[in-house]
Design goal:
The chain is an all-alpha fold. The chain has a single domain, classed as Orthogonal Bundle (ABC transporter involved in vitamin B12 uptake, BtuC), CATH 1.10.3470. Helices cover 80% and strands 1% of the residues. It is built from 15 helices and 2 strands. A two-stranded antiparallel sheet has the order 1-2. It is globular. The mean pLDDT is 86.
């Protein structure tokens, strides 16, 4: 089913309107951010709110290097820089647990935002900068390519011994360390891999925004939205974050268009209902519907 969806997405710009191409590009962006977040935080249980930091590094990489280098080189550079930042931050902080790690990652976003703002005003005299423009179809296909690479990476990691080590850390980190898992190395490397995709997608989407500044690039919303989308979709299956991000991103577009002053309130209501009645997200709902359908089929046969 996922392969069929990807094939349909590959042909979308040929028959869809420009508005729909732009809309699906935004949905793909959120899917990548959410799946990247789940790649690290899902199995390990570490709640990272640093997504906006890595995403913003990618945006500023495109703003600075986009006028000098080809776009594919800029995207790879953005991914590498975000990964390097995650390696440094992870090596320093992934020994922290619980609320301490959450607070540090959120503070990291604010720290980088204010450092970039101070540098821009002091040395350039302007808060923001312009980004080289790229046509919407190119942005769309690059986003789709990054998504495919991310899904393959997630699938291979989940089925490897490395993925088993991450799940053991999430279940009982001390027990994992006692049986020989290098828990710090596993966490830092996974953190860096997930950050690389966040930086890459930031570099791609920046070419659609024309103008960026620290408040746009390092907006805290990009740290919270992947978490909410992952909870909404459910993290038990590979398709859970994808489904949650796609539905949530589309809801955001509809609610902002029709209820611009109340859409955050409506988001809150949707999340409360999900947490209260769908603790496993949309994945849990799909699984219950499947089990119910299978049970009815068995009853009919007997």
């Amino acid at each position: 089913m996922l392969l069929v969806v990807l094939l349909l997405l590959a042909g979308l710009p040929r028959f869809a309107s420009l508005y729909n191409v732009v809309l699906v590009t935004s949905i793909l962006m959120y899917i990548i951010l959410t799946q990247s977040w789940v790649l690290f935080s899902g199995p390990t249980g570490y709640m990272s709110l640093a997504t906006a930091a890595f995403f913003g590094v990618g945006i500023y990489t495109a703003a600075i290097l986009g006028w000098k280098l080809p776009l594919p080189v800029v995207i790879v550079t953005a991914g590498l820089l975000s990964s390097l930042l995650a390696l440094v931050v992870g090596a320093l902080t992934l020994r922290l647990r619980g609320i301490y790690f959450i607070i540090f990652t959120l503070g990291l976003v604010e720290l980088i935002k204010n450092v970039v703002l101070w540098h821009a005003i002091k040395f350039t005299g302007a808060r923001g900068r312009f980004v080289v423009l790229v046509d919407n179809n190119t942005i769309y296909y690059l986003m789709l390519f990054i998504l495919v690479v991310l899904l393959l990476t997630t699938y291979l990691i989940r089925r490897s011994r490395y993925g088993l080590a991450m799940r053991s850390i999430g279940e009982d980190e001390e027990a994992a360390a006692h049986v020989g898992v290098n828990v710090t190395m596993v966490k830092v490397i996974t953190f860096a891999i997930s950050a690389s995709f966040m930086g890459a997608v930031g570099a791609i989407i920046a070419t659609r925004w024309t103008y960026i500044d620290p408040y746009i690039a390092f907006k805290s919303l990009y740290s919270f939205m992947p978490v909410l989308m992952a909870i909404f979709g459910g993290m038990g299956q590979l398709y859970g974050p994808i489904l949650g991000a796609a539905v949530f991103a589309y809801l955001e577009e509809v609610l902002i268009t029709k209820f611009p002053y109340y859409y955050m309130l409506l988001f809150g209501v949707i999340l409360l209902v999900t947490i209260l009645y769908l603790p496993d997200g949309l994945v849990g709902l799909v699984q219950r519907l499947r089990r119910g359908g299978w049970a009815r089929g068995q009853h009919a046969n007997t």
